[in-house]
Amino acid sequence: MMLASSTQAGAQDVKSSSASSNVPNDGSLTTDDGTALRQLEKQEAADTSLNPPPDLKITPPPKLPPRVSGSHEEHKSMPLGRIHTAGLIKVEALNPIRLEANYTEPITLKQALTHALDHNLAIGINQQTYQSSIYNFAGALAGYLPNSQTVYGNTHTTIQPHTHTTSDVFSQSVNFPLFQGGRITYGAIGSYDRMKASRQQLGASINDTLLQVYMDYTNCVLQRVLLRIRIKAVEVDQEQLRLNERLYETGVGTKLAVMQARTQLSLDQQALLLQQQTVRQAGLQLAFDLNMPLSGDYIPLEDRAAESALFRTDISIDSLLGQALVHRPELRQYEYLRLAANRNIQLAAAPLYPVAQYTLNYNYQSTGIVTNAPTATTSTAGVGQFGGTFNTLSSAFNLGWSMPNLGMASAANILAGRAIARQSMLQLNQVLLNIQQQVRSSYITMRTAHENIDVAAVGVESSTEELHLARIRLEAGVATYLDLLTAQRDYIQTLTNQAQAIIASNQAQAQLLHDTGLISVDTLTKGENQPIGLLPLNKVN
Questions:
Q1: CA distance 232 to 221
Q2: Is the link from the previous residue into 161 a cis peptide, with omega within 30 of 0?
C-alpha cells in the first residue's frame, strides 16, 4: 500500500512537471512574485479596449453649451420698446415719470447740443470775457494815437476904481508820443496775447459744455432704459406671484413662497418708484445745462440703448496724442498766457528808458478894456491884461529821462515779471502732462468699455437661461422659490449691467473726443456715418 501511494504521488509530480514544461520558456512566467499575473491583466485590458464586448455601451461626454451667439454689432444695442406709463406707480396725484413737470417735450441729441451752444450760461459768460479782452486790445492800440487837449476860458477882471477887463482864451494842444520806452508797443502785444488766450478759454468752455450735455443726454437715455428694466422686473414679479398662488391652491406650493413673492413684488415696486425719481432728476440736470425751463420734462427720442461708433477701431494712441497737441484749446491758452507774461517783463522795463514827444499848441486870446471914469473913456491896444487880440501857434520837441526811486522799483518789477513768466511756462508744462494723461486714460477706458459690452451680453444670456430653468424646476416641484428669486435678481442685474456698459462706452468715447480736442456737434452726432480715424494735423486758431 505504501508503494502504491508513492507511485501515484510520483505520477502526479511527473504530470505537474510535464505541465510546467509545456509553458514556453521565454522568461515571462519564470518568477513567482506576481509579475506574470500583472502582465496577463495588462494584456486582457488591452484586448478589451480594442475589442469591447457587444453589450457594452459607451456614453459620450456631454457637450458644452454654445457660446453667446451673435457679434458685437448685435450686442451693442438693447431694444426694450417704449415706456408704457399706464402701469407705472403714481406718487399721490402726480403724473408718472414727470412728477412735478408741467409739460413733456421730446428732444434729439443734435438739438440739445445746438441749443447748448446758443444758450448755455457758462459759454455766455466766457463769450463776454472774450468780448472784454477785444476791447482791452483795442484800447491798447489807441496808445499810438496823439493826445489832444482843448481849453476855453472866460475871465472878467475889475481894476478899481473904474476899469473892467474881459478876456476870452482858447487853447488847443496836440501831443504826439514818439517813444515811451516800449510801454505802448509791448502793452499792445501783451493785450493781444491775452485776447487770444481768452478766445481759447472760450473754446475750452464750449468743449466742456458739449461733453456735459452729451453726458446728461446719455444719462437720461440710460435712466429711462433702467426704468423699462424695472417695469420688466415688476411684470416678472407679478407673474411669479400668480404662479406661487396657483401652486399653493393646487397644494404643491407653500404659504411662505406666496409671502416671499409678495415681498419681492413690493421691493421691486419701490425700486421702480425710486427709478422714476432718478429719471426726473436726470431730466432736470439736462434742462439746467441747456438753460431751458426746469418745469419741462425733456425726453430723449432714442428709445433704446445703443453704442455709437465715434472712433474707428484702428485708431492708435499716438494719433490721438498728436490730435490733442494740435486741437486742445487749453494748450494754446496757456501758451498765449506765457507770451503775455514775457511781454510784461519788457513792459516793466519801460520806465528805465527816456521819453520823447512832439507837441503842437495853438492859443487865441481876446481882451477888452472898459473905463467908466467921468473924465474919459479910453480903449487902447496893449499886451498882458490890456486890451487886444492875440493868435499864437507853437511847436515843441521834448526829450526827458526820469528815474523814479533811482530805478529800483522798475528793477524789482522786472524780476517779478520774470518769475511770473517762469510760472506760466511751468503751468504750460503741467497742462501738457495733464492732457497726455487724460488722453491715455480715456483711451484705456474706451477700449475697456467697448469690450465690456460683449462681457455683459454673456451674463444676460446666462441669466436668461438661469431664470428659465428656475421657473421650470419650480413648476416641477424640484426647486424652491428662493432659487427663482435668485435667478430673477441675476437676470435684472445683468440687464442693468448691459445697459450701463453700452452707455458707458458712448460716454467714454465722448470723453476721449473732449480730451483730444475733437469734440463738436458733428463728431458727437455723426457716429457710424463718419467715425474718427487718422485725421490731418491741421492747427485750429
A1: 17
A2: yes
Which secondary-structure segment (H or E) carries 361? strand 355-371
Q: What angle do CA 71, 75, 77 make, to 5 degrees?
A: 140
Q: Tell me the HSE value of 514 on the side-chain side, using a 13 A CA sphere.
A: 22
- In three-state secondary structure terms, 171 is strand
Compute how many other C-beta atoms are within 10 angstroms of the C-beta atom of residue 425. 16
- Beta strand 103-107 pairing with 296-300: parallel
Q: Which amino acid is at 424?
A: S
Cα–Cα–Cα angle for 61, 64, 69, rounded to 5 degrees: 155
> E strands of 237-306, at which residues?
296-300, 305-306
DSSP string for 468-492: HHHHHHHHHTSS-HHHHHHHHHHHH
pTM summary value: 0.75
**pLDDT tens, 146-200?**
999 999 988 887 777 777 788 888 999 999 988 888 889 999 999 999 999 999 9
Tell me 375's DSSP state: S
d(CA 152, CA 201): 48
CA distance 314 to 92: 53
H/E stretch holding 17: helix 2-21
Measured CA to CA, the distance from residue 131 to residue 469 in angstroms comes to 67
Could you give the 3-state DSSP secondary structure of residue 399? strand
Burial (CB < 10 A; 0-12, 13-18, 19+), residue 2, is: exposed
Q: What is the pLDDT of residues 514-533, one digit of tens each?
A: 999 999 999 998 754 444 44
Q: What gap in Å lies between CA 274 and CA 95, rounded to an integer?
A: 14
> What are the tens digits of pLDDT across the range 267-304?
988 999 899 889 999 999 999 999 999 988 888 887 77
Quick one: which of 204, 208, 209, 444 has its CA closest to 327?
204
Long-range CB contact pairs, 152-159, < 8 A, 24+: 157/385
* Residue 75 and residue 454 in contact, taking contact as beta carbons nearer than 8 Å: yes
- Cell numbers linked to 488: 430673477
| Residue partners of 489: CB distance under 8 A and separation at least 6 | none
CA 416, CA 432: separation in Å to the nearest integer?
Answer: 25
d(CA 523, CA 511): 12
How far is 490 from 244, CA to CA, in rounded Å? 20
- The answer for 27, left when phi > 0, alpha when psi is -120 to 50, beta otherwise, is left
Cell of 109: 441729441
Query: Among all chains, which residue has been given the C-alpha cell 514818439?
Result: 178
Distance CA 335, CA 428 (A): 7
Measured between alpha carbons, how far is 222 from 16 in angstroms, rounded to an integer? 93
Report the C-alpha dihedral over residues 320, 321, 323, 329, rounded to 10 degrees: 130
Calpha distance 132→387 (Å, rounded): 53
